[in-house]
Amino acid sequence: MDRDVLLLGIAAVLAGLTATLAMLGIAYSPFVFLAALPTGAAAYFLWYQASGRLKEDMRSRAAGRRSARGAGEGAPGGDSRFAREARARMGDGGRVGPRGADGRGARTRGRGPTGGPAMNANSGMPPGDARRTLGVDADASGSEVKAAYRDRVKETHPDSGGDEEEFKRVNRAYETLKGD
């Protein structure tokens, strides 16, 4: 609240400066009038922010985009080729996270370590396979698992010339062992 009062005070000072510059521009030189334009714009934008109208407008625009997306006019992530391919790879229409009991997405946010859907503690990989994938012993500590994971990710990351399927397998292995 104190921030809004401060912004309103600064906006009032800028509005007064704008009025003074406009009067001087009319009386002496039109070039002084040009200096009044940016100060007037600054005063307006500060008032717009402090009055809360900016926040209201941003929320209504976001709500409009969400309703348009729900009506099929847009898609999560946009309509670029990359976004369409990413949604196709996910195979779930862009939903993030596991499904709830009602069949809809139980979680709407949360991403795993690779930027893909978040995984729960049971990633579907047996702990023995996960240890072999990361190259750690059965009695490895959490920090050893993490260090092995980081090394394997560097080797298998697709951006570094690695295999995408092996990279996914390394991530599943880490998700399995991370909970232990």
Your description of this structure?
Residues 129-180 form the J domain. This is J domain-containing protein. One of its GO terms (biological process) is protein refolding. The chain contains seven helices and no strands. Helix content is 63%, strand content 0%. It has 180 residues and is mostly helical. The relative contact order is 0.07. The protein folds into three domains: 2-60; 76-115, no CATH class; 127-178, DnaJ domain (Helix Hairpins), CATH 1.10.287.110. The protein is elongated, with a radius of gyration of 28 Å.
Outline of the structure:
The protein has 180 residues and is mostly helical.
Shape: elongated
Q: Which parts are unreliable, with pLDDT below 50 for 5 consecutive residues or more?
A: 92-115, 117-121
Binned strand content = under 5%
Based on secondary structure, the structural category is mainly alpha
Radius of gyration: 28 Å
Distance between the termini: 46 Å
User: How many E strands?
Assistant: 0
Protein name: J domain-containing protein
GO molecular function, one term: unfolded protein binding
InterPro entries: DnaJ_domain (IPR001623), J_dom_sf (IPR036869)
Keywords: Chaperone, Membrane, Transmembrane, Transmembrane helix
